[in-house]
Design brief:
It comes from Caldisalinibacter kiritimatiensis. InterPro entries: Aldolase_TIM, NrdG2, Radical_SAM_PqqE_MftC-like, rSAM, rSAM_sf. Its EC number is 1.97.1.4. This is Ribonucleotide reductase of class III (Anaerobic), activating protein. By secondary structure, the protein is α/β, with parallel strands linked by helices. It has a single domain, classed as Aldolase class I (TIM Barrel). It has an eight-stranded mixed beta sheet with strand order 1-2-3-4-5-6-7-8, with helices on one face. The longest helix is centred in the middle third of the chain and has 13 residues. The mean pLDDT is 97. Bound molecules: iron/sulfur cluster (SF4). The site of iron/sulfur cluster (SF4) has 12 residues, from loops.
Length: 230
């Protein structure tokens, strides 16, 4: 079975308070113009042999706490992803899934079967502005269903939003945050420019740290924890 196109052997930042390895799938059903993973989103590059991955996981079991599955969008690969995670769990690793929330059925299935321990779901924009940011037609009900599934589960989670001035105003971020009020953890990830940005370098502007602090002040009462990254 071939699923992954990228592998970061060790990460101290992708799984909160844990040391993990990160695996990246290729392909995504969104086209967020600020995305840093253009090659992966366009599904370029070679597959990594799955037996190499399991060999790695077997050897590193004492050094790593978990496996973070990122992308691209991993939930596009329904059964393949389910089967891969089932095999990883047999090695007794924690599993974190990064998702854009477009496959609530798979998400629920993974949670119900205790196959994932942490979910980081991107919430891209206020619901009525979603398609402007992700650049494709979507069924917003799937995003709302995923939010409900995660909030009503007993696994650890975060909702997070990449913020840049051209795509989300301060008011947009506050509106978005209000729509997920009462959630456990909300993270604003400041946009970082670079050569691999999907729409090209120099198109988008990050927020100033003080501006994000200011937004944090307005929304922090709505969550157990609010964080700014970047
Ligand atoms: S930011 Fe995430 S959801 Fe958006 S295109 Fe990139 S991989 Fe897909």
């Amino acid at each position: 079975m071939q699923l992954f196109k990228g592998h970061q052997k060790t990460s101290f930042i992708d799984y909160p308070d844990k040391i993990c390895t990160v695996l990246f799938v290729g392909g995504c059903n969104f086209r967020c113009p600020y995305c840093h993973n253009g090659e992966l989103v366009n599904n370029e590059g070679e597959f990594i042999d799955e037996e190499y991955i399991f060999d790695f996981l077997n050897k590193r079991r004492k050094m790593l706490d978990g496996v973070c599955i990122s992308g691209g969008e991993a939930t596009l690969y329904n059964t393949k992803l389910y089967d891969f995670i089932t095999r990883v769990k047999k090695l007794d690793y924690l599993v974190k899934l990064d998702t854009n929330g477009t496959n609530p059925e798979l998400l629920k299935n993974l949670i119900d079967n205790k196959l994932i321990d942490y979910v980081a779901m991107d919430i891209k924009a206020p619901f009525d502005k979603y398609e402007d940011v992700v650049n494709v037609k979507i069924d917003i009900e799937n995003i709302k269903k995923s939010i409900d599934i995660i909030r009503n589960s007993n696994i650890d989670y975060e909702f997070r939003t990449t913020v840049c001035k051209e795509l989300l105003t301060k008011e947009d971020i506050i509106e978005l945050a209000e729509s997920i009020k009462g959630s456990k953890r909300y993270i604003m990830q400041n946009f970082k420019d670079g050569e691999t940005v999907l729409a090209g370098k120099g198109k988008f502007t990050s927020y100033k740290g003080s501006e994000l602090k200011n937004i944090e002040e307005s929304i922090k009462g709505w969550f157990e924890e609010v964080k700014i990254r970047g």
